[in-house]
Specification:
globular, alpha/beta, 6-stranded antiparallel beta sheet
Length: about 725
């Protein structure tokens, strides 16, 4: 099957399924998924922390065989999902309460498993040598999940885990998802890691007494080498799993995998990126506790990363959400469609079959609009994982990177993401590349970026770029300029205040410029912004392209996520400040629009809409998504019980929407049709097509939350 045609769902199996289901019950559950058009299920269970359940592995294998039989009978594939290494080991009354509540949420109980409570309280001695060791204490490291975790360099753990996976594969599953391949706390300083680290690097890890001076000291080459070692260790674990599966004859397993967030930090050395070529579906977990209708601006940043990763591997991107009602199911489903991703939904406590049918039926009816959508980007943002992972206090660079990326996304700019190891050909796909605070750039990267500009690209640096070499040593900005072939001089002095940004006859008034650098224009350079009497933004020609260097034009705020933890017995509402998105639109977003001089897709509406446009087999698929009321201009409290009003009931847009799309190809459009899950019939729209621009108006009252517009050529 075309991987874009897969429709995923979670298959929860807890106490009922494990202890009480008959084969007929499993068949009935599989039939419900099939009725909704689901083609693949991923298993999830209160037994997720599989190492606590080792005495019951035969029981779990049997349940999995029954799930596989039932699903295969209805043409549904099964991906088995569990934690590769986490355990439950609550250490006090509060943690026991949370663990108990987590079981209860899933209609389960610790006491359904005689002896399990004791295994939680006293981890079996035979496994203790396998645990990650915290370098601060020399004792087992705790995870974020109230328990211990295993070390991926421990040969006994690896052998036992691979033997477990052999049993999983023998149940007939179609794929596996080995979750939680990560290091927690300040680990791992076990004997195996110490030995391997010395063999591979020649460095020795410090003892607990000297650990505090070592940890997060990026000026220490030993610490940087250890960070690289941890990531290499987790990556090798996935690669070795792949080799093991193939040695058993499993060459075509489905391998979907997700991470909730990686742009801010990869603190756990998760190999999600470095093992990315292994994944058959690359997706993000828009995590369960985030209030969805207010947290999606942060999810959108992670979406750009997943889509970029997926495009490099030629596989689909996907979003996982945890909706609870029809309105937030519709809202999150429509977000995934806006983003060009597949959709995966679950409640934390079980299935969503009663909500799925309507939207999955719409997907099926419009399948060609959602298969392998190709984005038509206006620019790409450069993600520097080296900056994120190997610079001191990296947040000072990552926060503005995220802020500028968010400003692009919410300013009507179709943004993609490019990576530091992308080839010159990959970079040259984009008319403009934005590098906000890419602090660590190798000499090879600077050479490749200069080549991009020389070949006609517009290269836009913001703030502190290239100030570290790949080995972490400092590099003067003037050396960065020389490597890029820039003739202007750099003064490392601040200039804060107001100014007017001017570019190609377009201007933006700015009242909070924050420049850490000022410039002396060289031969042929152009000053784009002056602040406090100093040049704070410049432009120089480079071959047939150009290089622009900008300051920050506001305090770089970010619209983050707002959390109400549903795993606690009492949910608390989250405090949400006024959204910074309007400020970002007026400042950094306006500057980027001035640099672009126009975007491919323009939407004019009195209602706040997000939009996207993709090239698909039949022409173009355009998406309109209503965000009215989700970016409040004042502080509020938010919670999961809040209804997404524009995606509920009979709400319809009260005003018309005008759309202009600069087509990437000249082939004439022959029809434009609007469809929405809110209505069973499609609506043809009047349009004009002059060979370059497709223009049409969506009348008021046709949709409230989401509209798919097919432009067929």
């Amino acid at each position: 099957m075309n991987p874009w045609k897969e429709r995923f769902a979670w298959f929860w199996y807890n106490d009922d399924e494990i202890f009480r289901f008959s084969d007929e019950d499993f068949d009935r559950k599989a039939a419900e998924f099939a009725k909704n058009g689901i083609t693949t299920v991923i298993t999830f269970s209160s037994t997720h922390f599989r190492w606590n359940y080792r005495p019951w592995w035969p029981k779990l294998y049997d349940v999995l065989r029954r799930i596989v039989r039932a699903c295969h009978a209805h043409g549904i594939k099964v991906v088995e999902h569990h934690s590769s290494q986490l355990t439950s080991a609550p250490k006090d009354e509060h943690e026991w309460e949370l663990v108990e509540y987590s079981f209860a949420m899933r209609n389960s109980s610790i006491d359904s498993w005689p002896g399990l409570r004791e295994r939680f309280a006293d981890f079996p001695e035979e496994y203790k040598p396998w645990l990650q060791i915290d370098g601060r204490t020399g004792t087992p490291a705790r995870s974020n999940y109230m328990g211990w975790c295993m070390c991926f360099n421990n040969p006994d753990y690896r052998a036992a885990y691979m033997e477990y996976m052999k049993g999983v594969l023998e149940t007939g599953v179609d794929g596996v998802m080995n979750d939680d391949v990560q290091y927690f706390s300040q680990s791992c300083a076990c004997p195996h890691c110490r030995k391997l680290f010395y063999e591979q690097t020649g460095y020795e890890l410090p003892d607990p007494e000297h650990w505090p001076a070592f940890w997060e000291n990026y000026a220490d080459p030993v610490y940087v080498a250890f960070r690289r070692f941890r990531l290499a260790s987790t990556t090798a674990f996935y690669n070795d799993l792949t080799a093991y599966y193939e040695s058993l004859g499993y060459h075509h397993l489905m391998r979907p995998n997700y991470i909730s967030g990686i742009l801010r930090s990869n603190w756990s050395s998760c190999p999600f990126e470095t093992a990315g070529r292994t994944w058959t579906h690359i997706f993000q977990e828009n995590y369960v506790s985030a209030v969805r209708q207010y947290s999606y601006p942060e999810f959108a940043l992670e979406m750009l990363h997943r889509n970029a990763m997926a495009s490099r591997s030629g596989v689909p991107s996907m979003s996982l959400f945890y909706p609870e009602r029809d309105d937030d199911y519709y809202f999150t489903w429509a977000l995934s469609r806006l983003w060009g991703q597949l959709y995966l939904a679950t409640r934390e406590r079980g299935d969503l079959n009663e909500l799925e049918y309507k939207y999955r039926a719409f997907e099926k009816a419009h399948e060609e609009s959602y298969i392998a959508p190709k984005r038509n980007p206006d620019l790409a943002v450069y993600q520097s994982a080296q900056t994120r992972d190997y610079t001191q206090n990296s947040r000072q660079y990552i926060d503005p990177f995220l802020s500028w990326t968010q400003s692009a996304y919410f300013s009507g700019i179709a943004a993609d993401m490019v990576f530091e190891n992308d080839t010159a050909d990959e970079l040259e796909r984009y008319p403009m590349i934005l590098l906000p605070h890419a602090a660590m750039l190798s000499d090879e990267e600077l050479c490749r970026l200069r080549g991009y500009a020389e070949q006609g690209g517009k290269l836009v640096f913001v703030g502190e770029c290239g100030i570290f070499r790949a080995d972490g040593s400092p590099r003067p900005v003037q050396e960065v300029f020389s490597a890029l072939g820039l003739r202007s001089g750099v003064n490392e002095e601040a200039a804060n205040g107001s100014g007017t940004f001017c570019y190609a006859g377009r201007s933006v008034e700015l009242d909070d410029v924050r420049a850490g650098l000022t410039f002396a224009c060289g031969d042929g350079a152009e000053a784009l912004l002056c602040t406090d009497g100093k040049t704070t933004a410049i432009r120089e020609r480079c071959g047939t392209g150009e290089i622009v260097w900008l300051p920050d034009v506001c305090a770089n705020p970010i619209h983050g996520s707002y959390v109400s933890d549903i795993r606690k017995p009492v949910r608390e509402r989250a405090n949400m400040p006024a959204s910074p998105i309007p400020l970002l639109r007026r400042t950094s977003g306006a500057v980027l629009n001035a640099l672009l001089g126009g975007v491919r897709l323009t939407v004019e509406s009195k209602t706040d809409l997000l939009s996207s446009a993709y090239t698909v087999e039949h022409g173009y698929a355009l998406h309109l998504f209503n965000i009215e009321g989700t970016l409040p201009d004042h502080a509020i409290t938010v919670g999961h019980e809040d209804v997404v009003t524009t995606f509920a009931g009979a709400y319809k847009l009260p005003d018309a929407v005008t759309v202009r799309f600069e087509k990437p190809a000249a082939a004439p459009v022959r029809e434009v049709v609007l469809s929405t899950p809110e209505c069973g019939t499609a609506t043809p729209l009047s349009f004009t097509d002059d060979g370059k621009t497709l223009a049409f108006t969506v009348p008021a009252g046709l949709f409230g939350g989401y509209a798919l517009i097919d432009a067929r050529v």
